[in-house]
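Continuing from the previous page...

OK, I double-checked the sequence for FtsX-like permease family protein against my notes and this is the correct one:
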Amino acid sequence: MSLALAARIARRDLRGGLRGFWVLLVCLALGVAAIAAVGSVRAAIQAGLTEQGAALLGGDAEVSLTYRFADEAERDWLEDRAATVSEIVDFRSMAVVGQDGAAERALTQVKGVDAAWPLVGQVVLDPPMPLAEALGPTPQGLPGGVMAPLLADRLGLALGDVFRLGVQDFVLTARLQVEPDAGAAGFGFGPRTLVLRSALEDSQLLGAGTLFDSRYRLMLAQGADPDALRDDWRGAFPDSGARWRDSRRGAPGIDNFVDRIGAFLVLVGLTGLAVGGVGVSAAVRAHLARKTQVIAVLKTLGASGRTIFQVYLLQVGAVTLMGVALGLVLGALVPLALAPLLSARLPVPAVFAPYPGPLAEAALYGILTAAIFTLWPLARTRQIRAATLFRDAGGIGAGWPQARFLAVIGLAAALLVGSAAWFSGLWALTLGVAGGVILAFGVLVAAAGLVRRAARAGGRSRLMRGRPVLRLALSAIGGPRDEALSVILSLGLGLTVLAAVGQVSSNLNQAIRTELPDRAPTYFFLDIQPDQLDGFLTRLRDDPLVDDVATAPMLRGIITGLKDRPAREVAPDHWVLRGDRGITYAASPPPGTRITQGEWWPEDYAGPPLASFSDEIATEIGLQIGDTITVNILGRDITATIANLREVDFSDAGIGFVMALDPGAMQGAPHTHIATVHADPAAEAPILRDLGSRYPNVTAVPVREVIDRAAEALSGIAAATAWAAGATLLTGFVVLIGAAAAGERARVHEAAVLKTLGASRARILASFALRSALLGAAAGGVALLGGGLAGWAVSVLVMEVPFRFDLVSALMIVVGGVLATLLAGLGFAWRPLAARPARVLRAQD
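Thanks. Re-ran it with the corrected sequence; updated structure tokens here:
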């Protein structure tokens, strides 16, 4: 009965419109729209990857081998079970143009294909021609090849020019415009070169131990089960070391990347929703304050505290649903409206459509956020007597809600955090973000209290004599109203997120520009044959401009077992188990090795296989001294016992291996060597020229180019994060405007009193402006502290780069805070200035 009565009263009360609820509507709509839009784009990309899985993979399924091609038995098995099989080989090499001292070299990712490729999709060449014609014999008697335009331009190649891979010459017949299965390749070290697999036989690039991947693309019969086929392969060839993929996840690397980045951006969006929650709470408090007389009358007429609570809970609930619905419409429509632009910019296919999952997730976040921030002021209405309401027209009172309401608020907060962690799959990051937001709220509330106390003390100071404008501003900030709390909470949290992003981005770019070149090698050389190593080292060690050379033997293998169990059962999601890993062997610890547990094996050790493993990764996947680890190398399983754990540092881009074995464990396995070279810039070109001419099979990776490519990718992530932080800041600005609008009535009365006492309009306006500027500066200052600490934590503890406070970014944050509050404050200052004192003061009686 009381709920029906409350619904009738709530409906009648809302007939006057949604005046005062616009801040709640806008804050919820913005927060929900941001999360829904990010989720919709992520769902569109995942749908595109699923729909185009076969095209991205290049077939219905793929079997991939490292260091070798399928043997006769394996090839027969594939051809018996697939309608069509296409063999390709993928590796990195140097594309060379010219001879000797005049030669130009550039790193390229080479793909050797057969006549059946591509099984799915079409290759687009410029000029248009059949692929068989482009890769077949040319009038010069050489095989043809096609290149990505970037690589051809870098080498100055025109159509008909000759280039070299290893010791094999090719003729550039076309430029590669579209490679249908490019998404399956993952991260490449250079632009693509496409040639026939058979044309590489005499290139000396596919010898024993050289690093290449052979991939067998399969078109399956209608209704074939990829899982059953994979299990059948593993039963027939348990030691093959093959990796399986099928079209259901044609580009798993891209899929995982999009999923993780999307989840991270949703978490940033939740921070914006938390900022909006401040506005939601302020809007509810302001609405209840305006309804003071109504509540007093209802209580005088016998309405219970429960009925009053239900009336305004229903009102706020209705407006919340409207805000969430508006946010869902925006979050669904904006990606659809931007679909042509996004499709052109995205490197993967996307199917844009309304997706219920992301919309439902955003709606859940919006409703839970509204519950967290509205229940507190709503619950306090139950504790207030009618007489208190008649005497206190300025608000709904103070104090803590009843314990049951606090429990509901806590449950809603736990559901919000738990849902975010569940949907994102990033439990640690979600809990960290939640803890950071709670800590930020606490710090900002404390900062607002300190600002009010300092302003109150400053306004009473003798130093304010003769400075009426400043004194008025300080007295207003230190007064009984909650203006300082609203401004510092809403603007401070948004600026804190933006400041943290700015500091992390600045320090990452600084590390890339200045620190890494000092530590990182000039070149990373791959595929050095054992009989080439002595001559290779002699050339470098005789060069006075070469500072340091380090080498190590290398093979690649797949970790298949841990602790005598399948590796995927022990650590199913760890990155070290995805794909193959570089593995070395050594009789004694390499220079600079720091062993943290156990001991290295003797130099003449000849017993069962022993392994040295990264201590950090061992801790992550639960390995200890004495545990076993099985690695498949060239189709052979080697099970070794962990003899020691050691520190492995990849931050200097030097030689680092997660796993090293004793020499006896690798005896007879074909392998090559890798090398890092630190040299003066003047020596770079001669080194590349001399070693490239003498050892054409050796691949030189310019570390600077790889770092630049990584920096470009990180810059894109930073830009996306900055946009998400900008949405948080926009929400904070809306809350600011709402706070300014809510305080307009009080400012009208304040201006009337000041005018009566002889203050000019200019002085009153200056006081209002100075008050806003001081609050903005305070919010910016708090954001600098919080953003600086967050930036330090991410830079030093997560990214492990030195931290340097970016003063320019910091000043922009403070200036932005001042301008935001100044604009919001001045926007609602003109009506108070125009009000006539007599009319305002008479209305107070």
